Request: fold
Amino acid sequence: MLKDSLVLLHPYVPFITEEIYLNMGFAGAKDTIMKESWPFAHEPFNFDAKEMDVVMDVIYVLRNARGEFNISPAEKLEAYLVTDKKELVEANKEIIITLAKLSSLAYAEKTGDNVAGREVKDFGFAGIEVKGKVDVLKETEKAKKAIEKFTQGIKAIENKFSNPKFTENAPKKLVDEENAKKEKLKNDIEQEEKKIKLLERLV
Reply:
């Protein structure tokens, strides 16, 4: 069932379905999911694409948290989930552990002080334990530099809007794009500030 699900999803999310396919040992004599035949349903095929999307989002958040703190891909990490979708997790636990490169996967009532992660839509929170895994001083300095860069970006946009020639002549599409960039930069600053607070707790 899982292999057929991966084949059906492959045209839409090729990279992660290929990785799951290979890591789960489905390849056999084949070396890629692209050589698999299209599934033929002899009976109603109960496949919930939305649930698989949620699982992939959880994996993405866990892997992204690792990348944000520059933790080696070879390092097996503990992950914590705050969710009421335990049945979904248990059905896909092996996939999550394998692709997120985890040593363990546990449930929690709330996010821990030393856990880095984010909310996942229609799921809850997913995060990894980072205490003892991070160069605190180095990552704090990087976060501060990132905030400076994002702040400069916001100032550059505000300077454009303070110029009458821009506000009077710029097309609405360009104005909307600049406003969207500004909001993204604000969100990026917020994420870096959260990272610094977490790093302070690791000292």
Observations:
- The chain has three domains: 1-44, 48-134, 136-202.
- Strands lie at 77-83, 102-107, 115-120, 124-129.
- The mean pLDDT is 87.
